[in-house]
Amino acid sequence: QVQLVESGGGLVQAGGSLRLSCAASGRTFSSYTVGWFRQGPGKGREFVAAIRRSGSSTYYADSVKGRFTISRDNAKNTVDLQMNSLKPEDTAEYYCAAAQKYSDSNYLYTDSTVYDYWGQGTQVTVSS
Predict the structure, then answer these.
(1) What number of CA atoms fall less than 13 Å from residue 56's CA on the CB side?
(2) What's the rounded Cα separation, in Å, for the pair 123 and 25?
(3) Could you report the per-residue pLDDT of 52-61, keeping only the tens digit for each?
């Protein structure tokens, strides 16, 4: 069992930065691929980024590529999402999730149904 807790959300002006953190419990955290998803007002849940177990491979949605960076520290059981050059359309509830399933395909991890555990979310609001 893995429990995930997000933090770091808040209100920021367009062009600003925020760093989200996902803290996990459980000694086997390093055996999970971790993803970040978001859900904006009136929208469905959207893939943002994912990072493989060892941190050696990352994958991003086109909408955030070049602006967001996902990283992990397995010794600390944390996964961070550094968000730069924020835009009003980035406004959403952000969730981290952990997937035990292994696949050679990064694309698999864009599918929210692959993930076994979810955090409660943290709100990010970007003002124009």
Answers:
(1) 5
(2) 21
(3) 998 889 999 9
Helix, strand, coil fractions of the chain, as percent rounded to 5? 10, 45, 40
How confident is the model over 80-114, as pLDDT tens digits?
999 999 999 999 999 999 999 988 888 899 999 99
Average pLDDT for the chain: 95
For the record, the structure tokens of 128 come out as: 């124009």
Tokens of 3: 């429990």
* Residue among 15, 59, 10 at smallest CA distance from 37: 59
Cα–Cα distance, 99 to 63 (Å, whole number)? 22
Distance (Å) of CA 123 to CA 36, 38, 39: 13, 9, 10
Rg (CA), the chain: 13
